[in-house]
């Protein structure tokens, strides 16, 4: 809810909120330890609080010398004076939930940090109160919807059009479906409360209602396919994009099972692929396409507009149907290359480009500025310079971590950060990345590798693979089967590698923590901890991807280096392993070849610079805590989920 339309913040905002709640709790604990009474809640009215400076708002709870202001609002303020003691060391999840249940927990936070949680907490309170009054699910929903203020916001965004308008349309459609469903639910079970409604919703595996296409009411434009227009009529009909290759589309379209061939054969047509048969088929398709075009063109009662584009230098050509429709009477208009789309965002972009281009004539720029001002007044998105990213101030230039924060880093994060710190911050802190099928496949292979390491027979491994396989969504049966084959190959490679591995397996899937310094810890999980012939630890990381590091890069492979450093710092002391004897990647995926490929990094103590891994971790920890994250082009840019926000990409650059 915090990162959705109500809270309207992002993962950084949530992270900041968690941290501020922790600081507020620590400060309140300290105050309580000194015997100061701790008051929770914000007794002062809203305007006074929003005027609080950053320093003031970060102060401890009010003390006796600095008593809380008298209550100014209703009964809630009475509650607000209740002491929150005794405090306990709650987890940040618990603090967050408590704050959403009771917004008084947010009283000591900076207003802009607390605002998203306050919005969510207020709405939850409205829902709770409505439910307490035994209102029906529909009434509770209505109260929440009214209090959310989303109705006005989404309606104006929807009216403004563009991608955001389309999203607002979808959101409004979703709300309409929800209300529809609630109304039907209340008709069906008038006595059931909101809990039953929620259970009912959660239990639905297939949505009970859908927004099937409906005829628009009154004056509206209908956009539909030629097929769907059969039997209907309108005063004005526009048949757009009548291009050769699109209409007629003479590509052979067969079904997977070829039933149309079966029909042809049963009608007596010969079953062969001669040119004569192909030509007959093409001519039949052309007739069908012509009939369909005729259907579309005859839907108009008064006026028919047919459009197509083409040019001498262009590959596009108007359809032959167009000249058949009006031989020699086509009306043509020349389009300037620089012509803009007839859309509001394109107009705004054009005006902005003109205003910001010093090479354009001054009167033109002034005229564009006047138009922009008019559009901004009408709340057209992007027209107001206050919303131009290039002109806005940074909302927050503080470092990501506070000076006394403990930076906890994982070995894989060190590697990701080293490759590109911008991608790391966008994927890790903001959540721009998304789990891919290959990542899920990797998770399954790791789970099977643990079972294989316990000497389970191959049949048991395959049966386990069957059990968990359906959890993955491959989008198509054929792809599912292909991936299943890939998974089985990886398991076979692993089993062969495991059987020939001379080292002793000490622990699979082992979690560890290692303290690097007062403010830096390494925390993570290794796939396998093994012991070599000299009693040293060798850490194994199983890889299932299609790329692998070059052999000459292994000596400075960040993830392997951090594993070795963690070993040196006592991460696996409980197994009697304190000396790193190296670390290795075991490639099982496409990167492997026929057999698994082990890529080894030598022991840190044998390296000419044994301190390189520690230096790397220290540098990365400082970088992760800073306020500057640099985009660094690397092999992963092609598949980077953050590239639309990355300045090194055409689509991610900053625009005026
Ligand atoms: Fe970094 Fe490349 Fe992603 Fe940009 S596209 S954030 S440079 S990984």
Structure commentary:
There is one protein chain. Helix content is about 45%, strand content about 10%. It is α/β, with parallel strands linked by helices. The chain has five domains: about 10-130, no CATH class; about 220-325, 2-Layer Sandwich (Double Stranded RNA Binding Domain); about 345-390, no CATH class; about 405-435 and about 500-585 and about 605-655, Lambda Exonuclease, Chain A (Alpha-Beta Complex); about 435-500, no CATH class. Strands 3, 4, 5, 6, 7 and 8 form a six-stranded mixed beta sheet that branches. Strands 1-2 form a two-stranded parallel ribbon. About 20% of the residues are buried. The structure holds iron/sulfur cluster. Iron/sulfur cluster binds near residues 422, 633, 634, 642 and 649.
């Amino acid at each position: 809810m915090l990162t959705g339309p109500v809270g309207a913040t992002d993962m950084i905002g949530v992270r900041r909120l968690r941290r501020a709640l922790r600081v507020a709790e620590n400060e309140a604990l300290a105050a309580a330890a000194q015997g100061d009474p701790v008051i929770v809640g914000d007794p002062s009215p809203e305007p006074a609080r929003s005027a609080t400076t950053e320093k003031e708002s970060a102060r401890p709870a009010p003390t006796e010398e600095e008593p809380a202001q008298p209550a100014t609002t209703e009964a809630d303020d009475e509650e607000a004076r209740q002491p929150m003691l005794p405090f306990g060391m709650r987890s940040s999840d618990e603090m967050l939930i408590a704050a959403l249940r009771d917004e008084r927990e947010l009283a000591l936070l900076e207003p802009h940090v607390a605002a998203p949680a306050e919005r969510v907490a207020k709405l939850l309170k409205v829902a709770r109160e409505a439910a307490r009054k035994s209102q029906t699910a529909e009434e509770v929903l209505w109260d929440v919807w009214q209090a959310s203020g989303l109705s006005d916001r989404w309606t104006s965004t929807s009216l403004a059009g563009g991608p955001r308008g389309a999203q607002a349309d979808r959101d409004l459609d979703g709300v309409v479906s929800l209300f529809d469903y609630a109304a039907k639910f209340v008709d069906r079970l008038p006595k059931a409360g909101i809990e039953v409604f929620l259970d009912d919703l959660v239990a639905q595996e297939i949505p009970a209602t859908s927004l099937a296409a409906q005829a628009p009411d009154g004056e509206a434009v209908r956009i539909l396919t030629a097929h769907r227009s059969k039997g209907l009529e309108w005063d004005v009909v526009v048949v757009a994009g009548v291009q050769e290759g699109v209409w007629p589309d003479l590509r052979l379209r067969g079904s997977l099972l070829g039933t149309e061939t079966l029909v042809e054969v049963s009608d007596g047509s010969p079953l062969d692929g001669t040119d004569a048969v192909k030509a007959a088929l093409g001519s039949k398709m052309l007739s069908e396409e012509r009939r369909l075009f005729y259907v579309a063109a005859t839907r108009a009662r008064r006026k028919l507009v047919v459009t197509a584009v083409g040019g001498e230098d262009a590959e596009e050509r108007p359809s032959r149907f167009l000249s058949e429709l009006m031989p020699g009477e086509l009306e043509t208009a020349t389009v300037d290359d620089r012509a803009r789309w007839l859309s509001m965002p394109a107009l705004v972009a054009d005006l902005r480009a003109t205003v910001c281009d010093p090479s354009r004539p001054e009167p033109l720029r002034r005229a564009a500025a006047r138009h922009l001002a008019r559009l901004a007044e009408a709340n057209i998105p992007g027209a107001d310079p206050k919303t131009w990213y290039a002109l806005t101030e940074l909302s927050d230039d503080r470092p990501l971590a506070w000076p006394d924060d403990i930076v906890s880093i994982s070995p894989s994060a060190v590697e990701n950060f080293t490759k590109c710190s911008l991608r790391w911050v966008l994927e890790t802190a903001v959540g721009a990345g998304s789990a891919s099928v290959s990542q899920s496949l990797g998770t399954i292979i790791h789970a099977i590798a643990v079972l294989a390491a316990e000497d389970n027979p191959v049949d048991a491994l395959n049966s386990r693979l069957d059990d968990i396989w359906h959890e993955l969504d491959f989008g198509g049966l054929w792809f599912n089967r292909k991936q299943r084959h890939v998974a089985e190959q990886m398991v076979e490679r692993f089993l062969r590698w495991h059987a020939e591995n001379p080292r002793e397996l000490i622990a699979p899937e082992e979690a560890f923590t290692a303290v690097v310094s007062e403010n830096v810890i390494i925390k993570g999980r290794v796939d396998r901890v093994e012991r070599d012939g000299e009693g040293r630890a060798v850490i194994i990381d199983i890889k299932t991807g299609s790329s692998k590091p070059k052999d000459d890069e292994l000596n400075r492979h960040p993830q392997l280096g951090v594993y070795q450093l963690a070993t040196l710092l006592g991460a696996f002391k409980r197994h009697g392993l304190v000396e790193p004897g190296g670390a290795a990647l075991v490639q099982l995926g496409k990167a492997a070849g026929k057999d698994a490929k082990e890529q080894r990094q030598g022991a840190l103590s044998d390296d000419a610079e044994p301190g390189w891994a520690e230096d790397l971790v220290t540098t990365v920890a400082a970088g992760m805590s800073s306020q500057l994250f640099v985009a660094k082009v690397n092999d992963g840019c092609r598949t980077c989920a953050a590239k639309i926000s990355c300045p090194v990409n055409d689509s991610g650059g900053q625009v005026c």
